[in-house]
Design a protein that fits this description.
Bound molecules: flavin-adenine dinucleotide
Number of strands: 12
Distance between the termini: 59 Å
Oligomer: single chain
Protein backbone atom coordinates (compact mmCIF):
# COMPACT_ATOMS: atom_id res chain seq x y z
CA UNK A 1 0.00 0.00 0.00
CA UNK A 2 1.06 3.53 -0.58
CA UNK A 3 1.69 5.40 2.59
CA UNK A 4 2.09 9.13 2.31
CA UNK A 5 5.62 9.91 1.20
CA UNK A 6 6.79 6.31 1.26
CA UNK A 7 7.57 4.32 -1.85
CA UNK A 8 5.16 1.45 -2.47
CA UNK A 9 8.00 -0.97 -2.97
CA UNK A 10 9.22 -0.37 0.52
CA UNK A 11 11.93 2.09 -0.43
CA UNK A 12 12.60 5.09 1.69
CA UNK A 13 11.19 8.56 1.67
CA UNK A 14 12.79 10.29 -1.20
CA UNK A 15 12.89 13.60 0.63
CA UNK A 16 14.28 12.07 3.75
CA UNK A 17 17.55 13.40 5.08
CA UNK A 18 20.60 11.59 3.72
CA UNK A 19 20.30 8.04 4.99
CA UNK A 20 23.89 7.01 5.33
CA UNK A 21 26.57 8.11 7.78
CA UNK A 22 29.40 10.38 6.75
CA UNK A 23 30.24 13.87 7.70
CA UNK A 24 26.88 15.39 7.18
CA UNK A 25 23.92 14.26 9.18
CA UNK A 26 20.68 16.09 9.15
CA UNK A 27 20.88 18.20 12.20
CA UNK A 28 18.35 18.82 14.86
CA UNK A 29 15.44 19.68 12.62
CA UNK A 30 15.35 16.42 10.69
CA UNK A 31 12.48 14.08 11.31
CA UNK A 32 9.68 16.57 11.96
CA UNK A 33 7.63 15.44 9.02
CA UNK A 34 4.77 17.64 7.98
CA UNK A 35 2.51 17.63 4.96
CA UNK A 36 2.55 20.87 3.02
CA UNK A 37 -0.74 21.99 1.45
CA UNK A 38 0.42 21.12 -2.05
CA UNK A 39 1.01 17.51 -1.06
CA UNK A 40 4.80 17.34 -0.77
CA UNK A 41 6.31 15.90 2.31
CA UNK A 42 8.74 18.28 3.92
CA UNK A 43 10.95 17.30 6.71
CA UNK A 44 11.03 20.54 8.63
CA UNK A 45 11.51 22.57 5.46
CA UNK A 46 11.11 26.22 6.34
CA UNK A 47 7.57 27.40 5.84
CA UNK A 48 8.74 30.01 3.34
CA UNK A 49 10.09 27.30 1.05
CA UNK A 50 6.87 25.32 1.21
CA UNK A 51 4.85 28.42 0.44
CA UNK A 52 7.18 29.28 -2.43
CA UNK A 53 6.73 25.86 -4.03
CA UNK A 54 2.96 26.08 -3.77
CA UNK A 55 2.88 29.59 -5.22
CA UNK A 56 4.95 28.75 -8.27
CA UNK A 57 1.86 28.21 -10.40
CA UNK A 58 0.92 31.40 -12.11
CA UNK A 59 -2.65 31.89 -13.14
CA UNK A 60 -2.18 34.34 -15.99
CA UNK A 61 -3.77 31.96 -18.50
CA UNK A 62 -5.86 29.88 -16.09
CA UNK A 63 -9.54 29.89 -15.23
CA UNK A 64 -10.90 28.24 -12.09
CA UNK A 65 -11.57 25.13 -14.17
CA UNK A 66 -7.92 24.99 -15.22
CA UNK A 67 -6.86 25.20 -11.60
CA UNK A 68 -9.24 22.36 -10.71
CA UNK A 69 -7.74 20.20 -13.47
CA UNK A 70 -4.28 21.07 -12.21
CA UNK A 71 -5.13 20.15 -8.62
CA UNK A 72 -6.75 16.87 -9.66
CA UNK A 73 -3.80 15.81 -11.79
CA UNK A 74 -1.35 16.95 -9.15
CA UNK A 75 -3.03 14.70 -6.60
CA UNK A 76 -2.98 11.69 -8.94
CA UNK A 77 0.63 12.36 -9.90
CA UNK A 78 1.76 12.58 -6.32
CA UNK A 79 -0.36 9.85 -4.80
CA UNK A 80 -0.38 7.25 -7.60
CA UNK A 81 2.56 7.92 -9.93
CA UNK A 82 5.27 9.21 -7.62
CA UNK A 83 5.32 6.08 -5.40
CA UNK A 84 5.75 3.76 -8.38
CA UNK A 85 7.81 5.82 -10.84
CA UNK A 86 11.19 4.70 -9.54
CA UNK A 87 10.33 1.00 -9.86
CA UNK A 88 8.97 1.35 -13.41
CA UNK A 89 12.10 3.27 -14.39
CA UNK A 90 14.53 0.81 -12.81
CA UNK A 91 12.74 -2.15 -14.39
CA UNK A 92 12.14 -0.31 -17.67
CA UNK A 93 8.52 -1.43 -17.51
CA UNK A 94 5.52 0.15 -19.16
CA UNK A 95 3.26 1.37 -16.31
CA UNK A 96 0.07 -0.45 -17.34
CA UNK A 97 -1.65 -0.10 -13.97
CA UNK A 98 -1.11 3.65 -13.88
CA UNK A 99 -2.11 3.98 -17.55
CA UNK A 100 -5.41 2.28 -16.69
CA UNK A 101 -5.94 4.76 -13.85
CA UNK A 102 -5.11 7.68 -16.13
CA UNK A 103 -7.52 6.34 -18.75
CA UNK A 104 -10.28 5.98 -16.15
CA UNK A 105 -9.74 9.60 -15.13
CA UNK A 106 -10.06 10.77 -18.73
CA UNK A 107 -6.42 11.87 -19.00
CA UNK A 108 -5.95 10.11 -22.34
CA UNK A 109 -8.56 12.24 -24.09
CA UNK A 110 -8.39 15.65 -22.41
CA UNK A 111 -8.80 17.97 -25.44
CA UNK A 112 -11.22 15.91 -27.55
CA UNK A 113 -15.00 16.45 -27.72
CA UNK A 114 -17.20 14.42 -25.42
CA UNK A 115 -19.11 12.97 -28.39
CA UNK A 116 -15.79 11.41 -29.50
CA UNK A 117 -15.15 9.97 -26.04
CA UNK A 118 -12.93 12.83 -24.86
CA UNK A 119 -13.10 14.99 -21.74
CA UNK A 120 -14.20 18.01 -23.78
CA UNK A 121 -11.62 20.30 -22.22
CA UNK A 122 -9.44 22.89 -23.88
CA UNK A 123 -5.82 22.75 -25.04
CA UNK A 124 -4.52 24.64 -21.99
CA UNK A 125 -6.03 21.95 -19.75
CA UNK A 126 -4.13 19.34 -21.73
CA UNK A 127 -0.85 21.26 -21.36
CA UNK A 128 -1.48 21.58 -17.61
CA UNK A 129 -1.88 17.78 -17.41
CA UNK A 130 1.48 17.17 -19.14
CA UNK A 131 3.19 19.80 -17.00
CA UNK A 132 1.88 18.33 -13.73
CA UNK A 133 2.62 14.70 -14.63
CA UNK A 134 6.18 15.57 -15.68
CA UNK A 135 6.92 17.23 -12.33
CA UNK A 136 6.69 13.73 -10.89
CA UNK A 137 7.64 11.42 -13.79
CA UNK A 138 8.45 12.17 -17.43
CA UNK A 139 7.71 8.63 -18.68
CA UNK A 140 4.07 8.96 -17.64
CA UNK A 141 3.90 12.45 -19.13
CA UNK A 142 5.28 11.34 -22.52
CA UNK A 143 2.87 8.40 -22.53
CA UNK A 144 -0.06 10.85 -22.37
CA UNK A 145 1.61 13.34 -24.71
CA UNK A 146 2.63 10.88 -27.46
CA UNK A 147 -0.78 9.22 -27.31
CA UNK A 148 -2.71 12.49 -27.44
CA UNK A 149 -0.73 14.85 -29.65
CA UNK A 150 1.11 12.45 -31.88
CA UNK A 151 -1.29 9.50 -32.01
CA UNK A 152 -4.75 11.06 -31.80
CA UNK A 153 -4.52 14.68 -32.96
CA UNK A 154 -3.75 13.86 -36.64
CA UNK A 155 -6.99 11.82 -36.82
CA UNK A 156 -8.97 14.60 -35.11
CA UNK A 157 -7.39 17.28 -37.32
CA UNK A 158 -7.31 15.50 -40.70
CA UNK A 159 -9.64 12.49 -40.42
CA UNK A 160 -12.95 12.04 -42.20
CA UNK A 161 -16.08 11.91 -40.02
CA UNK A 162 -16.05 8.13 -40.42
CA UNK A 163 -12.39 7.84 -39.37
CA UNK A 164 -13.00 10.04 -36.34
CA UNK A 165 -16.03 7.95 -35.37
CA UNK A 166 -14.09 4.68 -35.74
CA UNK A 167 -10.76 5.55 -34.14
CA UNK A 168 -10.99 8.58 -31.84
CA UNK A 169 -13.34 7.14 -29.16
CA UNK A 170 -11.03 4.12 -28.75
CA UNK A 171 -8.06 6.46 -28.28
CA UNK A 172 -9.75 9.20 -26.25
CA UNK A 173 -11.09 6.75 -23.68
CA UNK A 174 -7.71 5.03 -23.48
CA UNK A 175 -9.20 1.75 -24.68
CA UNK A 176 -6.17 1.52 -26.99
CA UNK A 177 -2.98 3.55 -27.16
CA UNK A 178 -1.89 5.59 -30.17
CA UNK A 179 1.42 6.65 -31.69
CA UNK A 180 3.04 8.44 -34.60
CA UNK A 181 5.45 6.74 -36.99
CA UNK A 182 7.59 9.28 -38.79
CA UNK A 183 11.29 8.72 -38.00
CA UNK A 184 13.22 6.20 -40.11
CA UNK A 185 16.80 4.97 -40.03
CA UNK A 186 17.72 7.44 -42.76
CA UNK A 187 15.07 10.10 -42.05
CA UNK A 188 15.26 11.76 -38.62
CA UNK A 189 15.65 15.53 -38.65
CA UNK A 190 15.25 15.25 -42.41
CA UNK A 191 11.76 13.73 -42.18
CA UNK A 192 11.17 14.38 -45.88
CA UNK A 193 13.71 11.63 -46.56
CA UNK A 194 11.05 8.97 -45.84
CA UNK A 195 11.87 5.72 -47.62
CA UNK A 196 8.85 3.68 -46.50
CA UNK A 197 6.71 3.12 -49.58
CA UNK A 198 3.00 2.55 -50.02
CA UNK A 199 1.85 0.96 -53.27
CA UNK A 200 -1.76 1.28 -54.44
CA UNK A 201 -3.44 -2.13 -54.85
CA UNK A 202 -7.00 -0.95 -55.37
CA UNK A 203 -8.93 -1.39 -52.14
CA UNK A 204 -5.74 -1.34 -50.06
CA UNK A 205 -2.13 -0.12 -49.97
CA UNK A 206 0.90 -2.32 -49.42
CA UNK A 207 3.48 -0.70 -47.14
CA UNK A 208 7.14 -1.67 -46.93
CA UNK A 209 9.79 -0.01 -44.79
CA UNK A 210 10.65 0.66 -41.18
CA UNK A 211 10.12 3.39 -38.61
CA UNK A 212 12.48 3.69 -35.65
CA UNK A 213 12.22 5.10 -32.11
CA UNK A 214 8.43 5.05 -32.25
CA UNK A 215 6.73 5.76 -28.93
CA UNK A 216 4.00 3.11 -28.39
CA UNK A 217 5.07 1.07 -31.44
CA UNK A 218 4.82 -1.93 -29.12
CA UNK A 219 2.02 -1.22 -26.67
CA UNK A 220 -0.10 0.82 -29.09
CA UNK A 221 -2.79 -0.40 -31.48
CA UNK A 222 -3.39 2.68 -33.66
CA UNK A 223 -0.38 4.36 -35.26
CA UNK A 224 -0.45 7.23 -37.73
CA UNK A 225 2.46 6.56 -40.09
CA UNK A 226 3.85 8.28 -43.15
CA UNK A 227 4.87 6.57 -46.39
CA UNK A 228 5.95 7.69 -49.83
CA UNK A 229 3.09 7.38 -52.31
CA UNK A 230 4.66 9.22 -55.24
CA UNK A 231 8.32 8.25 -55.71
CA UNK A 232 8.70 10.75 -58.57
CA UNK A 233 7.55 13.76 -56.53
CA UNK A 234 9.86 16.29 -54.87
CA UNK A 235 11.12 15.10 -51.47
CA UNK A 236 8.53 16.66 -49.19
CA UNK A 237 5.70 16.03 -51.62
CA UNK A 238 4.46 12.55 -52.46
CA UNK A 239 4.20 11.48 -48.80
CA UNK A 240 0.85 10.33 -47.39
CA UNK A 241 -0.34 9.58 -43.84
CA UNK A 242 -1.99 6.23 -43.05
CA UNK A 243 -3.85 4.99 -40.00
CA UNK A 244 -2.15 1.68 -39.30
CA UNK A 245 -3.63 -0.77 -36.78
CA UNK A 246 -1.92 -3.66 -35.00
CA UNK A 247 -2.27 -5.70 -31.83
CA UNK A 248 -0.53 -4.51 -28.69
CA UNK A 249 2.65 -6.47 -27.99
CA UNK A 250 1.64 -6.71 -24.34
CA UNK A 251 -1.65 -8.57 -24.66
CA UNK A 252 -1.42 -10.27 -21.26
CA UNK A 253 -0.85 -7.01 -19.38
CA UNK A 254 -3.44 -5.12 -21.42
CA UNK A 255 -5.98 -7.86 -20.65
CA UNK A 256 -5.06 -7.91 -16.99
CA UNK A 257 -5.55 -4.18 -16.45
CA UNK A 258 -8.49 -3.93 -18.86
CA UNK A 259 -7.11 -1.32 -21.23
CA UNK A 260 -4.78 -1.26 -24.23
CA UNK A 261 -6.46 -3.83 -26.46
CA UNK A 262 -9.60 -3.78 -28.59
CA UNK A 263 -10.31 -7.20 -30.15
CA UNK A 264 -13.01 -5.85 -32.51
CA UNK A 265 -10.63 -3.33 -34.11
CA UNK A 266 -9.52 -4.84 -37.45
CA UNK A 267 -5.72 -5.05 -37.58
CA UNK A 268 -3.44 -4.60 -40.61
CA UNK A 269 -1.50 -7.78 -41.49
CA UNK A 270 2.27 -7.33 -41.93
CA UNK A 271 2.84 -4.70 -39.20
CA UNK A 272 5.62 -5.92 -36.89
CA UNK A 273 7.32 -4.43 -33.85
CA UNK A 274 10.98 -4.63 -32.89
CA UNK A 275 12.51 -5.07 -29.49
CA UNK A 276 12.05 -2.40 -26.87
CA UNK A 277 14.85 0.19 -26.92
CA UNK A 278 17.10 0.19 -23.84
CA UNK A 279 17.17 3.92 -23.19
CA UNK A 280 19.00 6.40 -20.96
CA UNK A 281 15.74 8.01 -19.82
CA UNK A 282 11.98 7.79 -20.33
CA UNK A 283 12.63 4.16 -19.43
CA UNK A 284 9.03 3.40 -18.54
CA UNK A 285 7.88 4.67 -21.92
CA UNK A 286 7.60 2.18 -24.80
CA UNK A 287 9.95 2.98 -27.72
CA UNK A 288 10.48 0.51 -30.57
CA UNK A 289 10.97 -0.05 -34.24
CA UNK A 290 7.82 -0.47 -36.33
CA UNK A 291 8.32 -2.60 -39.42
CA UNK A 292 6.02 -2.80 -42.44
CA UNK A 293 6.54 -6.08 -44.26
CA UNK A 294 4.07 -6.14 -47.14
CA UNK A 295 1.67 -4.57 -44.66
CA UNK A 296 -1.89 -4.33 -45.91
CA UNK A 297 -3.57 -1.05 -45.03
CA UNK A 298 -7.15 -0.54 -46.25
CA UNK A 299 -7.74 2.38 -48.62
CA UNK A 300 -10.19 3.91 -46.13
CA UNK A 301 -7.25 4.31 -43.69
CA UNK A 302 -5.57 6.96 -45.86
CA UNK A 303 -5.52 9.98 -43.55
CA UNK A 304 -6.08 13.49 -44.88
CA UNK A 305 -4.94 14.79 -48.22
CA UNK A 306 -3.30 12.21 -50.51
CA UNK A 307 0.39 13.18 -50.94
CA UNK A 308 -0.15 15.83 -48.22
CA UNK A 309 1.38 13.81 -45.37
CA UNK A 310 4.45 16.03 -44.95
CA UNK A 311 2.30 19.09 -44.31
CA UNK A 312 0.17 17.12 -41.81
CA UNK A 313 3.32 15.97 -40.06
CA UNK A 314 4.62 19.54 -39.68
CA UNK A 315 1.27 20.62 -38.26
CA UNK A 316 1.25 17.73 -35.76
CA UNK A 317 4.82 18.43 -34.67
CA UNK A 318 4.11 22.15 -34.13
CA UNK A 319 1.48 21.18 -31.53
CA UNK A 320 3.65 18.39 -30.18
CA UNK A 321 6.43 20.84 -29.43
CA UNK A 322 4.26 22.73 -26.97
CA UNK A 323 3.47 19.45 -25.22
CA UNK A 324 7.13 18.50 -25.05
CA UNK A 325 7.99 21.99 -23.80
CA UNK A 326 5.42 21.55 -21.00
CA UNK A 327 6.97 18.18 -20.22
CA UNK A 328 10.46 19.68 -20.01
CA UNK A 329 9.14 22.51 -17.85
CA UNK A 330 7.56 19.96 -15.53
CA UNK A 331 10.82 18.03 -15.13
CA UNK A 332 12.70 21.25 -14.32
CA UNK A 333 10.10 22.35 -11.80
CA UNK A 334 10.00 18.91 -10.20
CA UNK A 335 13.80 19.02 -9.88
CA UNK A 336 13.67 22.45 -8.22
CA UNK A 337 11.07 21.20 -5.73
CA UNK A 338 13.34 18.29 -4.86
CA UNK A 339 16.25 20.68 -4.37
CA UNK A 340 14.29 22.99 -2.10
CA UNK A 341 13.25 20.09 0.11
CA UNK A 342 16.72 18.50 0.12
CA UNK A 343 18.87 21.57 0.68
CA UNK A 344 16.60 22.74 3.49
CA UNK A 345 17.28 19.57 5.46
CA UNK A 346 20.78 18.51 4.45
CA UNK A 347 23.30 19.98 6.87
CA UNK A 348 26.99 20.68 6.29
CA UNK A 349 29.31 22.92 8.32
CA UNK A 350 26.57 22.93 10.97
CA UNK A 351 23.99 24.58 8.74
CA UNK A 352 21.35 23.66 6.23
CA UNK A 353 22.96 23.60 2.79
CA UNK A 354 20.18 25.94 1.66
CA UNK A 355 21.61 28.65 3.89
CA UNK A 356 24.78 29.03 1.80
CA UNK A 357 24.80 31.90 -0.66
CA UNK A 358 26.30 29.77 -3.43
CA UNK A 359 23.27 27.50 -3.14
CA UNK A 360 20.91 30.50 -3.19
CA UNK A 361 22.39 31.51 -6.55
CA UNK A 362 21.77 28.07 -8.06
CA UNK A 363 18.20 27.89 -6.74
CA UNK A 364 17.44 31.45 -7.83
CA UNK A 365 18.74 30.81 -11.35
CA UNK A 366 16.65 27.64 -11.65
CA UNK A 367 13.50 29.40 -10.42
CA UNK A 368 14.03 32.37 -12.75
CA UNK A 369 14.54 30.21 -15.82
CA UNK A 370 11.54 28.06 -14.89
CA UNK A 371 9.39 31.16 -14.62
CA UNK A 372 10.59 32.31 -18.06
CA UNK A 373 9.88 28.89 -19.57
CA UNK A 374 6.43 28.84 -18.00
CA UNK A 375 5.52 32.04 -19.81
CA UNK A 376 6.86 30.75 -23.13
CA UNK A 377 5.00 27.45 -22.79
CA UNK A 378 1.64 28.83 -21.73
CA UNK A 379 1.84 31.70 -24.19
CA UNK A 380 2.42 29.27 -27.08
CA UNK A 381 -0.45 27.10 -25.79
CA UNK A 382 -2.72 30.15 -25.56
CA UNK A 383 -1.84 31.17 -29.14
CA UNK A 384 -2.73 27.67 -30.37
CA UNK A 385 -5.90 27.52 -28.34
CA UNK A 386 -7.12 30.87 -29.61
CA UNK A 387 -6.45 29.97 -33.23
CA UNK A 388 -3.50 32.33 -33.69
CA UNK A 389 -0.28 31.36 -35.52
CA UNK A 390 2.08 29.70 -33.03
CA UNK A 391 4.85 27.95 -35.00
CA UNK A 392 7.90 30.01 -33.88
CA UNK A 393 6.53 30.41 -30.35
CA UNK A 394 6.11 26.62 -30.07
CA UNK A 395 9.69 26.11 -31.28
CA UNK A 396 11.00 28.75 -28.85
CA UNK A 397 9.10 27.21 -25.94
CA UNK A 398 10.43 23.74 -26.80
CA UNK A 399 14.00 24.96 -27.34
CA UNK A 400 14.16 27.01 -24.17
CA UNK A 401 12.29 24.62 -21.86
CA UNK A 402 14.22 21.54 -22.96
CA UNK A 403 17.65 23.18 -22.63
CA UNK A 404 16.60 24.69 -19.30
CA UNK A 405 15.44 21.30 -18.07
CA UNK A 406 18.83 19.78 -18.88
CA UNK A 407 20.65 22.61 -17.05
CA UNK A 408 18.25 22.48 -14.09
CA UNK A 409 18.48 18.72 -13.58
CA UNK A 410 22.28 18.71 -13.79
CA UNK A 411 22.24 21.45 -11.18
CA UNK A 412 19.74 19.46 -9.10
CA UNK A 413 22.04 16.43 -8.98
CA UNK A 414 24.90 18.73 -8.00
CA UNK A 415 22.87 20.25 -5.16
CA UNK A 416 22.12 16.76 -3.85
CA UNK A 417 25.84 15.88 -3.78
CA UNK A 418 26.55 12.14 -3.79
CA UNK A 419 22.95 11.34 -2.91
CA UNK A 420 21.82 12.86 -6.17
CA UNK A 421 23.96 10.35 -8.02
CA UNK A 422 22.02 7.42 -6.57
CA UNK A 423 18.67 6.07 -7.73
CA UNK A 424 17.27 6.69 -4.26
CA UNK A 425 16.70 10.33 -5.10
CA UNK A 426 14.53 11.19 -8.13
CA UNK A 427 16.85 13.91 -9.44
CA UNK A 428 19.11 11.37 -11.17
CA UNK A 429 16.07 10.00 -13.05
CA UNK A 430 15.04 13.54 -13.88
CA UNK A 431 18.49 14.27 -15.29
CA UNK A 432 18.32 11.17 -17.51
CA UNK A 433 14.76 12.00 -18.56
CA UNK A 434 15.73 15.57 -19.45
CA UNK A 435 18.17 14.74 -22.24
CA UNK A 436 15.63 13.39 -24.72
CA UNK A 437 13.66 16.66 -24.48
CA UNK A 438 16.49 18.25 -26.51
CA UNK A 439 16.18 15.51 -29.16
CA UNK A 440 12.60 14.25 -29.57
CA UNK A 441 10.02 16.00 -31.79
CA UNK A 442 12.82 17.98 -33.41
CA UNK A 443 16.26 18.48 -31.91
CA UNK A 444 17.34 21.84 -30.46
CA UNK A 445 19.19 22.49 -33.70
CA UNK A 446 16.00 21.92 -35.69
CA UNK A 447 14.07 24.28 -33.37
CA UNK A 448 16.70 26.96 -34.07
CA UNK A 449 16.26 26.36 -37.79
CA UNK A 450 12.47 26.73 -37.47
CA UNK A 451 12.88 29.98 -35.52
CA UNK A 452 15.51 31.39 -37.88
CA UNK A 453 13.37 30.50 -40.88
CA UNK A 454 10.56 32.60 -39.44
CA UNK A 455 13.00 35.48 -38.93
CA UNK A 456 14.71 35.29 -42.28
CA UNK A 457 12.07 33.81 -44.57
CA UNK A 458 13.28 33.09 -48.09
CA UNK A 459 16.79 34.39 -47.34
CA UNK A 460 17.63 31.20 -45.49
CA UNK A 461 17.22 28.73 -48.39
C1 LIG B 1 12.80 8.10 -26.79
C2 LIG B 1 12.47 8.55 -28.18
C3 LIG B 1 11.15 8.62 -28.57
C4 LIG B 1 10.83 8.97 -29.89
N1 LIG B 1 9.53 8.94 -30.29
C5 LIG B 1 9.25 9.12 -31.61
C6 LIG B 1 7.93 8.93 -32.11
O1 LIG B 1 7.00 8.62 -31.36
N2 LIG B 1 7.71 9.07 -33.45
C7 LIG B 1 8.71 9.40 -34.31
O2 LIG B 1 8.45 9.51 -35.50
N3 LIG B 1 9.98 9.63 -33.86
C8 LIG B 1 10.26 9.48 -32.54
N4 LIG B 1 11.55 9.65 -32.08
C9 LIG B 1 12.59 10.06 -33.03
C10 LIG B 1 13.06 11.50 -32.81
O3 LIG B 1 12.05 12.40 -33.21
C11 LIG B 1 14.36 11.66 -33.60
O4 LIG B 1 15.34 10.93 -32.89
C12 LIG B 1 14.78 13.11 -33.75
O5 LIG B 1 13.91 13.80 -34.59
C13 LIG B 1 16.22 13.24 -34.32
O6 LIG B 1 16.38 12.43 -35.43
P1 LIG B 1 17.66 11.43 -35.51
O7 LIG B 1 17.66 10.65 -34.25
O8 LIG B 1 17.59 10.70 -36.78
O9 LIG B 1 18.91 12.38 -35.47
P2 LIG B 1 19.61 13.08 -36.74
O10 LIG B 1 18.59 13.79 -37.55
O11 LIG B 1 20.46 12.10 -37.43
O12 LIG B 1 20.50 14.17 -36.03
C14 LIG B 1 21.82 13.92 -35.53
C15 LIG B 1 22.39 15.27 -35.11
O13 LIG B 1 22.53 16.10 -36.28
C16 LIG B 1 21.88 17.33 -36.05
N5 LIG B 1 21.34 17.86 -37.29
C17 LIG B 1 20.59 17.21 -38.22
N6 LIG B 1 20.27 18.04 -39.22
C18 LIG B 1 20.79 19.25 -38.92
C19 LIG B 1 20.82 20.52 -39.56
N7 LIG B 1 20.20 20.74 -40.72
N8 LIG B 1 21.49 21.54 -38.96
C20 LIG B 1 22.11 21.36 -37.78
N9 LIG B 1 22.14 20.18 -37.14
C21 LIG B 1 21.48 19.14 -37.68
C22 LIG B 1 20.77 17.01 -35.06
O14 LIG B 1 20.30 18.18 -34.38
C23 LIG B 1 21.48 16.03 -34.14
O15 LIG B 1 22.25 16.73 -33.21
C24 LIG B 1 11.87 9.33 -30.79
C25 LIG B 1 13.20 9.28 -30.36
C26 LIG B 1 13.51 8.87 -29.09
C27 LIG B 1 14.96 8.76 -28.70
Amino acid sequence: MHRRGVWDDGLTLHQKPPPRGGTGGTGGKGGNASEAPCGLLYLAAPAALAAYICNMDDSLYFTDQHLQVRDMVRDVARQVIRPTARRYDLESQFPWDNVKQMADLGLLGIPWPEQLGGAGMDYLSYIIVIHELAKVDASHAITVSAHTTLGTSPIVDFGTEEQKRRFVPLLATGKVLGGFGLTEPGAGSDAGGTKTVAVDRGDHYVLNGSKIFITHAGVGEIIVATARTDPAAKKTRGITSFIVTKDTCDLAEATRVGTGHEPTLPKCPGVLTGKKEDKLGWRASDTRELVFQDAIVPRENVLGQFNGGFRHMLHTLDGGRIGLAALALGIAEGALEECLAFTATRKQFGKAVASFQGVHFALADMATEIEAAKHLVYHAAWLKQTGRPFKPEAAMAKLYASELCMRATIKAVQLHGGYGYTTEYPVERMMRDAKICEIGEGTSEIQRIVIARQLLGDLID
